[in-house]
Amino acid sequence: MRGRVAVVGSYNLGITYRVSRLPVWGETLAGQSARFDHGGKGSNQAVASARFGAPTSFVGCVGQDPAGHSARALLADEGVDIGSLETLEGYATGVGSIFVDAAGENAIVIDLGANAQLTPQALASRRQTPWRTADVVLAQLEVPWDTIKLAFRESEGLAILNPAPAHHGLATVDFRGVDLLTPNATEARLLTGMDADAAVSDRDLLHRLLERTRVPRIVLTLGSAGSLVWDGEQAWRVPALPVQAVDTTGAGDVFNGVLAAALAQGTPLLSAVRAASAAASLSVGIEGVIPAIPPADLVHRRALEIKPEPTSLD
Ligand code: RIB
């Protein structure tokens, strides 16, 4: 079938707290609310891709526990193929604890749990191998990097790496085999050997990313400022939609899932980024990740409001 996406990635049970601030060491802080929900960058991206209309497979690992069963149910309900999602005895499903403040910004702590068991050996032993035949393979960094490299090597499709969550070790990683890289500004700094909060312009950041990674196409996401895109020949600014942020958790996942789906459907890069930007913008106006992923028809309509502008990197 044309337009297939394979997401190689994580599922995490999400525990989200609304807080006025983060606790300090030694403090117990009363939050304003708490809820359990679905999370994990891979699973979030797979659902966003499927809702945008791409036949999507999820390649991952969950534990044999209630969260693992609930992950399978979510993905199956969303029409995501889970033939390559393994349930592992003796491992717990990954967990993400998410703290969201009044401005909708978040801080997250994760425990990888079963996600760390998606090793190259585990990938090689899968009976169903959707990453080999998909038009787009999309991965993030909550599963082992060697596994992602293997999936990209074995794939005939476009290899998209969303380098999240990033860490300083990425500054020396070899990104050969990646066709499209989609960092946010913090991840881009870490990838290029800078501190996470170093003062640098977004143009300079894109320039450094191109030199350092040699990845041919890059989408640098900039939150409410949209994104800065290198399409292989030219840089473009692609705005976001103006929205009142309620919860920014997973906005990057919505962006990447829709981007992958649109590219798999044969949409040119800039138009795919417009759709991704519209979807991510709409998602931050609604609480949670999965409930906030907008339907495809709304994304198509609102993407028409986004006008990319060519820009220079000099
Ligand atoms: O990008 C948001 C996601 O990151 C959350 O769902 C959390 O589980 C972490 O994986």
In short:
With 314 residues, the protein is of the alpha/beta class. The chain contains ten helices and 14 strands.
CATH architectural grouping? 3-Layer(aba) Sandwich
Q: What would you call the structural class?
A: alpha/beta
Q: Level of helix content?
A: 25-40%
Q: Tell me the name of the CATH class.
A: Alpha Beta
Low-confidence residue ranges: none
State which percent range the strand residues make up: 15-25%
Into how many domains do the coordinates divide? 1
The largest sheet is: 10 strands, mixed
Taken in chain order, the helices and strands follow as: EEEHEHEEEHHEHEEHHEEEHHHE
User: How large is the count of helical segments?
Assistant: 10
Radius of gyration: 18 Å
How many strand units? 14
Strand order of the largest sheet: 5-4-1-8-9-10-11-12-13-14
CATH topology: UDP-N-acetylmuramoyl-L-alanine:D-glutamate ligase
- Per CATH, the superfamily is Ribokinase
User: Termini distance?
Assistant: 42 Å
Q: What's the overall average pLDDT, rounded? A: 96
What would you note in describing this structure?
The protein has one domain: UDP-N-acetylmuramoyl-L-alanine:D-glutamate ligase. 31% of the residues lie in helices and 23% in strands. The chain is built from ten helices and 14 strands. Strands 5-4-1-8-9-10-11-12-13-14 form a ten-stranded mixed sheet, sandwiched between helices. The chain is globular and about 55 Å long. The structure holds alpha-D-ribofuranose. The site of alpha-D-ribofuranose (RIB) has 15 residues, from strand 2, helix 1, strand 7 and helix 8.
